């Protein structure tokens, strides 16, 4: 099966501009997650979709970040306007099953290669 | 609340030597534990996972990890390092809340010296 695909792989923008990152999860995966890694720091959770609904967006830094998942397929993460501290690698992940999966590992995440964002 | 501590942001081993990457976790509920590997310009790849079955977990590429509840540890080992093992290794913990809101450690970059 195809993996999790992210576009673009690298984006360089000026402070104040807008960037939209896209994630195509594995087909049939209801759960979609966004994570971010700032240089030198841990990978941090941003939010979680179950199909098209936001299940948990507690990790979103502020209202400059907007995530959508229309139709429960691909997802976009828009940063508007971008600030210097938004630079980092944005990872998308997906998993099978609904919330409440068993401990057998049905909800193990498959990650994409990430989108590197550089804000100048 | 959950957290992960990885001791040693950089580890160097000689080719053929034992690999030991340390991970300690904190979790208020029985944890799921994971090791991921990231090669340059690639995504995170799952090496192995612990989900309350056997405490010694075997993964891909000859890696294994042992869950020790008393020590809250989940160290990653491999008997003999290969050059191809050079990568960044990330330990992660998730709660049993039904979905995998994963908390990562800061990662350990493994260098293999010929």
Structure description:
The complex is a heterodimer of chains A (120) and B (114). Chain A has 120 residues and is mainly beta. In chain A, the strands form two sheets. In chain A, strands 2, 4, 5, 6, 9, 10 and 11 form a seven-stranded mixed β-sheet that branches. Chain A has no helices and eleven strands. With 114 residues, chain B is mainly beta. Helices cover 0% and strands 57% of the residues of chain B. Chain B has no helices and eleven strands. Chain B is globular. The model of chain B has no long low-confidence stretch (mean pLDDT 91).
Count of discrete alpha- or pi-helical segments spanning 4 or more residues of chain B: 0
**3D shape of chain B:** globular
Reading the helices and strands of chain B in chain order gives EEEEEEEEEEE
- What's the rounded overall pLDDT mean of chain A? 90
How many helices of chain A?
Answer: 0
Low-confidence stretches of chain A: none
Give the largest chain-chain interface (CB within 8 Å): A-B, 31 and 25 residues
State the end-to-end distance of chain B.
41 Å
Q: Assembly type of the shown chains?
A: heterodimer
Q: Structural class from helices and strands of chain A?
A: mainly beta
The total strand number of chain A stands at: 11
Portion of residues in beta strands of chain A equals over 45%
Largest sheet of chain B: 6 strands, mixed
User: Based on helices, strands and strand pairing, what is the structural class of chain B?
Assistant: mainly beta
Beginning-to-end CA distance, first to last residue of chain A: 37 Å
Unreliable sequence segments of chain B: none
* Shape label of chain A: globular
Instruction: Summarize the amount of helix of chain A as a percent range.
Output: under 10%
Mean pLDDT of chain B: 91
Briefly, what is this?
Chain A is mainly beta and 120 residues long.
Lay out the secondary structure.
The complex is a heterodimer of chains A (120) and B (114).
Chain A: E1 5-7, E2 10-13, E3 19-24, E4 31-37, E5 43-50, E6 53-56, E7 65-68, E8 75-79, E9 88-95, E10 110-111, E11 115-119
Parallel strand pairs in A: 2-11
Antiparallel strand pairs in A: 1-3, 3-8, 4-5, 4-9, 5-6, 7-8, 9-10, 9-11
Chain B: E1 2-7, E2 10-14, E3 19-27, E4 32-38, E5 44-50, E6 56-58, E7 64-68, E8 73-78, E9 87-94, E10 102-104, E11 108-113
Parallel strand pairs in B: 2-11
Antiparallel strand pairs in B: 1-3, 3-8, 4-5, 4-9, 6-7, 7-8, 9-10, 9-11
């Amino acid at each position: 099966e195809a993996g999790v695909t992210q576009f673009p792989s690298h984006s360089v923008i000026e402070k104040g501009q807008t960037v939209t990152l896209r994630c195509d999860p594995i087909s049939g995966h209801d759960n979609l997650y966004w994570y971010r890694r700032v240089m030198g720091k841990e990978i941090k959770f941003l939010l979680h979709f179950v199909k098209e609904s936001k299940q948990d967006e507690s990790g979103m830094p502020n209202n400059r970040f907007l995530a959508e998942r229309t139709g429960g397929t691909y997802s976009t993460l828009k940063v508007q306007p971008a600030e210097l501290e938004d630079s980092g690698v944005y990872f998308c992940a997906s998993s099978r099953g609904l919330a409440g999966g068993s401990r057998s590992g049905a909800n193990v995440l498959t990650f994409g290669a990430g989108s590197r964002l550089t804000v100048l | 609340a959950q957290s992960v501590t990885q001791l040693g942001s950089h580890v160097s081993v000689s080719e053929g030597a034992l690999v030991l990457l340390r991970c300690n976790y904190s979790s208020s509920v029985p944890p799921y534990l994971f090791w991921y590997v990231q090669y340059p310009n690639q995504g995170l790849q799952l090496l192995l996972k612990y989900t309350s079955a056997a405490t010694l977990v075997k993964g891909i590429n000859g890696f294994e990890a042992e869950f020790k509840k008393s020590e809250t540890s989940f160290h990653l080992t491999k008997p003999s390092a290969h050059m191809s093992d050079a990568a960044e290794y990330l330990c992660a913990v998730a709660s049993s809340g039904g979905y995998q809101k994963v908390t990562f450690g800061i990662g350990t970059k493994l260098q293999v010296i010929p």
